[in-house]
Amino acid sequence: MTATPRTITFDCADPAAQVRFWSGVTGRPVDTLPEGTPAQFVGAIGMWPRSNDLAYLFLAVPEGKTAKNRMHLDLECADRSAEVERLVALGATHVSDHSEFGITWTVLRDPEGNEFCLAEHH
């Protein structure tokens, strides 16, 4: 038996803003939440209706982010510099650029400070 990643869940101060940001990043639409969805499930991408792609869930929590992520998303694209520019325009913050092990990537933060990386695929 194995386990398959299904959902990346974000704890957020402003889930509505986060779901819009990540919808723009991924190019996937924000879900219409089903009637009766619990109030803390404020936003989602790819959960309703269920798709085979990785889903994103955005939950309202009272506490803010206090430390570096222990886990983060690694994304890839065809043109890293153009995509970094696009993501910064959406609200990301450019943190740093790196090149090691034959891979070049950029570290960014989403509007609530969650780090994620963007690499150019070859």
Automatic annotation (TrEMBL):
InterPro entries: Glyas_Bleomycin-R_OHBP_Dase, Glyoxalase_6. It comes from the Bacteria. Residues 8-118 form the Glyoxalase-like domain. Pfam families: Glyoxalase_6. PANTHER family: CONSERVED PROTEIN, HYPOTHETICAL FUSION PROTEIN. This is Glyoxalase-like domain-containing protein. It comes from Kineosphaera limosa NBRC 100340.
